[in-house]
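Thread: quick sanity check before group meeting

JM: Hey all, I'm pulling together slides for Thursday and realized we never actually wrote out the predicted structure for the chain we discussed last week. Dropping the sequence here so it's in one place. If anyone has concerns about the input, flag it before I start.
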Amino acid sequence: MSAAVTDLELREVSANYAAAPVLHSVSLQLAGGDLLAVLGPSGCGKTTLLRVIAGLLRPIAGDVLFGGEIFTNVPTELRGAAAVFQKPLLFPHLTVAENVGFGLKMRKVAKSEIAHRVAEALSLVELEGYQNRRPQELSGGQEQRVSLARAVVTRPRILLLDEPFSALDAGLRIKMRTFVRNLQNRLNLTTVFVTHDQEEAAALADMIALLLDGRLEQIGSPHELYSSPRTASAAAFLGWKVFQGERNGNRVDTSVGPFAIPDSYSGSHNDPHCKIAFHPSRARLVPLTGNRASVQGIFLSGRLEAVIDLGTRLQYVVLLESGDFLEIGSAQDGASYSELRVSDQVLIHLPADALHVF
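JM (edit): ok, ran it. Output follows.
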């Protein structure tokens, strides 16, 4: 049902919003048929990037390419990009079928062709039999599926999704993620998905572009981003604990104690200032007593401030000596944490390979 598979490329794209700089020299490439999640906090430029791709906003510098062809000055209606937004934006006075076929009607497509393509699109989004309903008769998830049908019925080259599930409850968001990923794979449709939700980005995307303050901080597979952030800013956004440090030979002194510089460190050894980081998922609580000499890695000390029951697991909140808080999940076997009480002094163990230095 979709058009020819289309590569997407941005070359040094900069853009303003109401004269204020928003995007700064963003360059990226997306292979045809892949799904790119643009991830970042509110106000970082995600929607502006989507508007530039769609042609709704012209960049002040740089180029947008579809299939290797420069589309920077091509009007929106000629780009072959279709968008789905946070709100479905359906016409309340039109039926589902009329909403889906509206774009085709504006293009003066023959009625018989519209009917065929609308039926095909509704089948793709699993809404056969809903063609005569009005938007007010649909659930939130059904409304968004109608929006998806309206987008794919035009056979776009690029599909753009701007946080389309943010208004849905948690269970429905998970269901819709799976639905969109399956639909995108089935159509082999190049897709850009904007989100501030890290779990959503990892669950959906072939590639994630992390956008911070209008700059492309890092792009790569979900595994690459979460396991090997390239900057301290990327690490902090992705949930790593980041501490300012001072290099002292092969050691980094921080507010939570000294750390040995990992063997994998490839940065400059001449700069005395650096940052050291680890992800809390690599941390484990250990008993204060016992022989630790045989255990490889780093130990930090702190006080247990809270134990949070999340239903399926427990979360332990530890106040480090530096004043920083660290949240640690349940032990894998559950045994070693069973005697811990709030206000107990505790030790946190980190494997040596859990550390990154920036």
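AS: nice. The longest helix spans residues 170-187. The chain is about 25% helix and 35% strand.
JM: adding both to the slides.
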